[in-house]
Amino acid sequence: MKSYLLVETRDPHEMRDVDWTCDVARALSRKAQVALLLTENGVFGARQGCGENLVRKLNGQGVAVFADRYALAERGIDARDLSDGVSVVDIDYLADALISGVCTAWR
Amino acid sequence: MTGKQTITVALMDAPFEASRTATIMRLIDCVVDKGCNVNVFAYEGAVYLPFALQKAHANSIHGRDVDEEDHPLPREWIAALMEKARVRGVQFDWVNCGLCVDERGAFEAIDRVRRGAPADFWTMATSSDNTLVVGTN
Q: Would the pTM count as exceeding 0.80?
């Protein structure tokens, strides 16, 4: 099965286009293995109180959601403050995906 | 995961403007650490990332001199990555788009930066195991 990784760098409260990224992830998940990596301002969408719906919809369709530990730390977001269903990873996750041949799209 | 895979990254953002610069340098550093070859094709404003005339500055507002401020310079990050790759025995090829260089007058690049053309990106991508394009917003 084809694997895709979407990397979202933008705050969903600042850029409505983040919804489009999630739509693409859900659409791809019908025929492929898909993960979403939130980094830079994208990690704001992973916080409790604002990201649950997004994460729930993605997880519900088999899309794994990850948040970049470095970006979280830069923005003062503790891992305990993330929505359920978000896993914290290091930049190795992205490197390993590329090395493994995962088709990766940067937003 | 280790190996001699080759990863190509295309960049477009100018230095000192976006978080992407730091994120991509972190990624490239990690890929080199994993023993992979790296190609970088710098397009548009990204040709200024290895610009040799970047200078650190003091911060008078906070009362710090140049050394205390320790202002980060992308050209130093790139040189350090190139050196790390050399020590690790992996290839690190950085190509600046020549048209973009000419448009911007960004002629003074650090050592080991090559001048090329978009066709080099095609060559890099087709000879790599994977390619990541990091566009501007």
A: yes
